[in-house]
Design brief:
By secondary structure, the chain is mainly alpha-helical. It is 62% helix and 1% strand. The longest helix has 34 residues. It is globular, with a radius of gyration of 30 Å. The two termini are 37 Å apart.
Length: 674
């Protein structure tokens, strides 16, 4: 088999797989680009390219005589205003089509430059697949999405720096490009020290000279605006939106949000900025000297983000470029840093962390924290490290034989005996639940359709003789302590019990944790299809049937979109019942894995109480519980088909000594038979 891998036939097979993967990735990148462009151009003129309206709107810079900064909406340098006027005029004439297509071309060029600048050594496969992956990540990132939607030009300085540092040959052309970028965005000047300390001193001098010449040109052409920007507003620090808004992801903005003001805030900001510049640039120089120039550029850009007085979201593309740094000696930890960066730069902070006061300082400053970590804290591996290309491999457990020969359908989906990275796991669970909540909230049908489906369910239950919801609801309402008990169970255990079980499995049985987590995820995804395809009004939202909403209180049926819950969840996502589905999942996991009989019986008590709670509180029909059981069973089934049985064959070295004595041949021993 080893010889076959190196044969011409095996090489041709590998090349064909790489070609197919590259074609699929390019197709994905093209779809994202078309979607992004269409999303902008299909918007009405007043809702697209909002920041471009600063120029071409009725009260835009092109139509209002006087200062660039008179309207308070333009925040760029005077040189940026000088060169953008003719570009904005063309955008006005083409209704933003040329502007949007030009932004698309800039993003593609940016992705190509990044792909070609990956550190050496990289595998041939990585080189071939890097360009579409880079373009796709750029398209998904918040800075690029904002640039498309708002009509921003902040991609241009980033591209100029990357071209100057990574693409063009010669010191002077490189310095010229970076100097132009600095004239458009002053914090780009931080790349001059990087050039100087990495031996490119002529480029550093040229960049400073170009910046000075272009700034002087703008000062000569627009002295009043130059005075306003450089002196009155201290390099533009006071322009634009309130500097303490969440959009300003810089140290200055964070300190203002923490309540510091006046001279104290300025002093703290200057000290922190000086420390970040010192440690960040020192790290960037080391990365460049190590041969990781792209990472050095990304680190310097992250320093610029942190120390800039205002770093609006569309200026934070440098954070995404830090994904190229390799972190972690073990293969199991290698994806932690890339996933953290990609999630931080593509999703809003409220999707990454719960809406709890204790998390607000982190949630509100996610991108700043990512930039600071990339600049000063993350332990990047040097190229000389033996773990850079060959991390400590992961030991995979062999699955026990399945009942069908083709199971598992995805042989690469293998489980390991060690615990997954806790931070990565928590983040993925949180993001997964956020996505689930957004989709569930979006899967809303009409109220009339949901109520019609409610009548259908009630009629089917009547035929089956299981329409017990009304009398059960009325019986509980007449007994106050029983009503309080079921209300408490309904509102308290839905998240607590599944998370507790996952926590115990993570600590005590990590291999089973992966299997259990996957089955729960599949069940939840299938439930989303039910919410989308069959919106269903629960009994409490069926007018004229006499149900009492014991949890939420009396409701106004003349206004179906009522109550606090409407703002956070879909009121008509009743089929299937995940309240019962998740509780059934908990009961089955405990039944299969708990070592004691009393534990198994206690685990089965939870779904029994839950099905009673969802019915007597009028939050679900009985058939909703059957739907919940169906998606849970399908979740377990999909996990079995794709990844194989829960039971694993442990390698001999992972088996305790007592069990090895029982099997003196040292063969693999089945695990997971608890």
């Amino acid at each position: 088999m080893a010889n076959a891998e190196h044969s011409p036939r095996g090489s041709a097979t590998a090349d064909s797989r790489i070609g197919a993967a590259r074609a699929a990735l390019w197709l994905f990148a093209v779809v994202l680009a078309v979607r992004q462009t269409a999303a902008v151009l299909t918007q009405p003129p007043g809702k697209r390219l909002i920041d471009l309206g600063t120029w071409i709107g009725d009260n835009g810079v092109l139509h209002v005589p006087g200062s660039l900064y008179e309207s308070g909406r333009f925040t760029g340098t005077p040189f940026a205003g000088l060169v953008l006027k003719p570009i904005a005029r063309s955008a006005e004439q083409s209704l933003g089509v040329v502007w949007t297509c030009g932004t698309l071309l800039l993003v593609v060029l940016l992705g190509l430059v990044v792909a070609r600048a990956l550190p050496i050594p990289v595998s041939r496969r990585s080189t071939l697949l890097a360009a579409p992956v880079a373009i796709s990540l750029l398209m998904l990132s918040l800075p690029v999405r904002n640039s498309f939607h708002l009509g921003q030009t902040s991609i241009i300085p980033v591209l100029l720096v990357l071209l100057g540092c990574l693409a063009v040959r010669g010191e002077r052309p490189a310095g010229l490009l970076i100097g132009v970028g600095a004239a458009l965005q002053p914090t780009v000047l931080l790349f001059a020290p990087l050039l100087w300390f990495t031996g490119r001193r002529q480029a550093a001098v040229t960049s400073m000279g170009t910046f000075g010449a272009l700034t002087a040109l703008a000062w000569a052409a627009m002295p009043g605006d130059s005075w306003t920007f450089w002196v009155h507003h201290v390099a533009g620090a006071g322009l634009g939106d309130n500097p303490d808004s969440l959009a300003n992801q810089s140290l200055h903005g964070a300190l203002l949000r923490f309540g510091l003001e006046g001279p104290l805030e300025i002093a703290v900001y200057v000290l922190l900025a000086a420390a970040v510049v010192f440690f960040g640039l020192r790290r960037a120089v080391r990365c460049a000297q190590d041969g990781q120039l792209l990472l050095a550029v990304a680190v310097t850009g992250c320093v610029a983000v942190a120390v800039s007085p205002t770093a609006w979201q569309h200026q934070l593309l440098w954070v995404l470029l830090a994904v190229v740094g390799r972190v972690g000696r073990r293969a199991a930890d290698r994806m932690l840093w890339p996933v953290l960066v990609v999630l931080a730069i593509t999703l809003p902070g409220n999707m990454l962390l719960p809406d709890m006061t204790v998390f607000h300082p982190v949630r509100d400053n996610t991108l700043l924290i990512a930039a600071l970590a990339a600049a000063c804290a993350v332990p990047y591996l040097p190229l000389s490290s033996p773990y850079f290309r060959r991390p400590v491999p992961t030991d995979y457990a062999a699955p026990a034989p399945a009942r069908w020969a083709r199971v598992p359908l995805l042989p690469f989906w293998r489980r390991v005996l060690t615990r997954p990275n806790l931070l990565l796991e928590l983040l993925v669970i949180r993001v997964g639940y956020s996505v689930y909540s957004h989709i569930r909230a979006a899967a809303t049908g009409s109220v009339a359709a949901a109520q019609e489906h409610g009548r259908q369910i009630h009629a089917i239950e009547g035929v089956l003789g299981i329409d017990m919801e009304h009398w059960a609801n009325q019986a509980v309402v007449r007994t106050e302590w029983v009503e309080a008990l079921f209300n408490f169970h309904y509102t308290s255990f839905h998240f607590l019990v599944p998370l507790s079980i996952l926590g115990v499995l993570y600590v005590r049985r990590p291999a089973d944790y992966r299997w259990a987590r996957s089955s729960l995820a599949f069940a939840t995804l299938l439930a989303l299809l039910g919410f989308w395809l069959y919106p269903l009004a629960p009994p409490r939202l069926m007018p004229g049937m006499g149900f009492v909403d014991t949890v939420h209180g009396p409701q106004d049926f003349a206004n179906p979109d009522y109550g606090a819950m409407t703002a956070v969840t879909n009121q008509y996502a009743a089929m299937p019942s995940l309240h019962f589905g998740w509780s059934l999942w908990c009961g089955l996991i405990v039944l299969m894995l708990a070592p004691k009989l009393w534990m198994k019986l206690l685990g089965l008590l939870h779904p029994l109480l839950t099905v009673c709670a969802i019915v007597v509180t009028a939050n679900h029909w009985v058939l909703d519980a059957f739907g919940g059981a169906l998606v849970v069973g399908a979740g377990f089934g999909l996990t079995y088909l794709l990844a194989g049985p829960r039971q694993l064959l442990l390698p001999a070295k992972a088996v305790p000594a007592a069990r090895r004595e029982a099997d003196p041949q040292g063969a693999a021993v089945p695990a997971g038979r608890a």
